[in-house]
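A.,

Following up on our hallway conversation. Structure tokens first:
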């Protein structure tokens, strides 16, 4: 399902906290888009992707934790890659790589950001350096 609402009177910090809360409650994804609302006011379109079973809990949270007066909702189809996590060794430590497969072939290799961040902190190097090392190591995964 897609749940959406417009917000024009919430601070960015509160919107950020709300997105994290929705994810913890089971949303598949939560994202914001900058929009221009009526009377030329800047606003935020908050979009939540979820399974229908999560609908009631997430709508309840939207009404209780945001300033919205209404939530649009509609069912949608979602196609996803099959996924698996494969650890790789880098000079900065072990990094999990998310492997995405389509029709039996690897089409995406993505280092797990949290792993890269932790290794970067330990080695006091920029995250992009660790991320690049993990991407390089990921190319060997078949």
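Then the amino acids I'd put at each of the 142 positions:
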């Amino acid at each position: 399902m897609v749940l959406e609402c417009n917000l024009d009177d919430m601070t960015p910090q509160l919107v950020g906290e709300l997105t994290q809360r929705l994810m913890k409650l089971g949303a598949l994804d939560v994202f914001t888009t900058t929009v221009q609302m009526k009377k030329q006011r800047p606003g935020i379109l908050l979009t939540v992707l979820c399974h229908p079973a999560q609908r009631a809990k997430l709508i309840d949270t939207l009404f209780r934790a945001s300033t919205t007066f209404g939530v649009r909702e509609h069912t949608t189809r979602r196609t996803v890659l099959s996924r698996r996590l494969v650890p790789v060794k880098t000079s900065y430590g072990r990094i999990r790589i998310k492997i995405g497969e389509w029709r039996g072939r690897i089409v995406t290799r993505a280092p797990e950001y949290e792993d890269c961040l932790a290794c970067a902190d330990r080695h006091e190097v920029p995250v992009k350096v660790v991320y690049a090392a993990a991407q390089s190591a990921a190319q060997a995964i078949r």
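The beta strands are 2-7, 29-36, 42-49, 72-74, 82-90, 93-102, 105-111. Curious whether your intuition agrees with the design.

B.
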